[in-house]
Amino acid sequence: MTQCHSPGILLSKASLRFNQKILFENLSFELAAGKITCLLGPSGVGKTTLLRILASLPLAGRGENKLQTLPATVKKPNPDELIVHYDEQEVVCNARIRTSDQLPLRGRLAYMAQTDLLLPWLSLLDNVMLGNLLRHVPRSQSQIDHAMHILESVGLAEDAHHKPHALSSGMKQRGALARTLMEDQPVILMDEPFSALDAITRYDMQTMAAEKLQQKTVLLITHDPWEALRLGHQIFILRGQPANLSAPIIPPMMPPRDITDEALLPFQKQLLRELDLRISVT
Ligand SMILES: Nc1ncnc2c1ncn2[C@@H]1O[C@H](COP(=O)(O)OP(=O)(O)OP(=O)(O)O)[C@@H](O)[C@H]1O
Ligand SMILES: [Mg+2]
Prior knowledge:
Shape: globular
Strand order of the largest sheet: 9-10-11-3-12-13
Number of strands: 13
Bound molecules: adenosine-5'-triphosphate, magnesium ion
């Protein structure tokens, strides 16, 4: 078995206030090393915000009556520890992030946003290779071959030279997935990565992603309980205001699971109950 080089991540003491609205208060959350953690929760509870804090990305803020992005201030009391802080009149946030391997998180994290964020003036292939472009890595044939291989795995090899405007929203989302996989980082944060896909493509992408994400520390946000049951080594529900986390739901067997397997039925019921779905689960 390959050894896992992906760190576990502990987020602790996360507090966030937008105006008078307290989203988190002293929230703690652990991502298991080399495992897929799925996070579900109602719209607006703070899932995307939590992901952005983990990646120390800017939050939406308001300055002098116009919307702007509010960058994170990051302090490093220890090599393996970050204190992320946002402070503006209407937004105050603090969080502590630690890695389990005592190494810095910086440079080891890939983020797939809720929207595809493909650059409209670049071809799909160039979008997939964007990370290397931004890092000024000289373009090589092996890099192009690798990007094409990933595009093939998401079913878009024939569209490699198209610009995003020529792609459907599901194709754009698969393009964004390909770009995330191209980064090949040990820690991957994914915000509803399959939400724009039809049922069959979604199933295929989940199967492919489960294989490519093996041994990586993944946080995957989804609104789909069956997706969480297929892919998550552990599943949490985020709910309430201020938000709190459910106890972890840990289904048996390795992902990608066959969700028609009867062994998953009790976990399906538990998940639906935790989500407070008003359907009959006896
Ligand atoms: N700059 C801001 N000012 C005030 N409130 C904000 C700001 N940015 C986000 N919010 C609020 O924070 C909450 C969490 O937003 P977030 O995008 O994290 O939710 P989410 O759980 O990802 O929802 P969804 O499932 O719809 O994507 C929302 O209620 C939103 O209105
Ligand atoms: Mg969101």
